[in-house]
Amino acid sequence: MPEEELDALVRSLNELKLPTDKQTSLECVKEAVKTVNATDVGETLYELYRIRETAGVSKKRFVDDLHEALRKSKNFEGIEAAVLRGRLTRLLDVKSLDVLSKAYAVQREQPYLYCEGRILSDIRPVFSDDVKKKPIGVVLSHTLKIVYHQDNEHREFFVALDRADLNELKDIVDRAQEKNSSIETLMKATGLPILGT
Known about the structure:
Layout: H1 3-14, H2 22-32, H3 38-55, H4 59-71, H5 81-91, H6 95-107, E1 113-126, E2 137-150, E3 153-161, H7 163-190
Antiparallel strand pairs: 1-2, 2-3
Helix pairs in contact: 1-2, 2-3, 3-6, 4-5
């Protein structure tokens, strides 16, 4: 990335007003970056801030460690050490991304973090005592799969559901969405920004 484009990127990110979120930051990157893949740049920056916050190390230590790792990479051969360190320092000193990474860490300060979910649906035949005869009916079965993070590992569990369970889950999620909206309205009235995603 040319120096003038890096300047524009850092300037653009520093001009972001809080509250902001990941998507807003990524859009800002896409507007400033033209010579390389802006989505890759944005995602990489976001992850670097998140990793630094999660690691709980100072900016200087993080830049030192990252600089050392990058210097060993063939992709960064020929780049002066001082130039690389300077660029990393500038990119990792953006207030809006710093605040976002802190919000991310606070929000996820839990032992189990939801990663993804899926509901698998099956039709299961029910047989009489004579299994050679056609089934006497079927039952509809649903399995909720939850994938989560624990101790930096992906884990998963499965729960059997029926139609009543699906309705109850939907009601629970709808209620949580309504509570979220109510809290957002309350926060707007206080003037306290909502950070993160």
